[in-house]
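Task card 7
Instruction: Convert sequence to structure tokens.
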Amino acid sequence: MDDADVSNQIQQMVCFICQEAEEKANEISLSAEEEFKIEKLQLVEVEKRKIRHEYERKEKQVEIKKKIEYSMQLNSSRLKILQAQDDLINSMKEAVGKELVHVSHNHHVYRKLMKELIVQSLLRLRESAVLLRCRKADHGFIESVLHLAKQEYAEKANVHPPEIIVDHQVYLPPAPSHHHMTGPSCSGGLVLASRDGKIV
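Output:
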């Protein structure tokens, strides 16, 4: 083998080694690129999961906040409705109280009302003997209608007229006036109780 053949053979070996090295380098490069892509996808998926989890957490917080706000608005509305009802009831009580004071000044109407109240109370109690309490100022009205009320009750209930004892010791409070702004007051009416006081 002469020098030219040796040189040619060495050249071929060098080309072969270079080609193999190039192929190996390409293989390594492709493998590295593939690993990089896989690693990148994994990192992207991890970050996506983190973002989804954070989004879901924030969405839940927003839902809870909405529910709390809705509940607070609902409670506020309920309180406003209750306050309006309370105001209306108080104004109605005040108007009725004023009207009752006027009713007790109209003697004819008030006398009739007292008789009807006695009959109604007797029908509710269904007792043979009752105790009646009224305002001191109404004592005359009571005495004037007592007999008629007993008779009307006896006819309606189909019983003997009951014994009605008017309490002269304990009276209902007096009518409200400008002179007595404090303390209990009563616009009128009466209280009936069983003789033992257990049913009022």
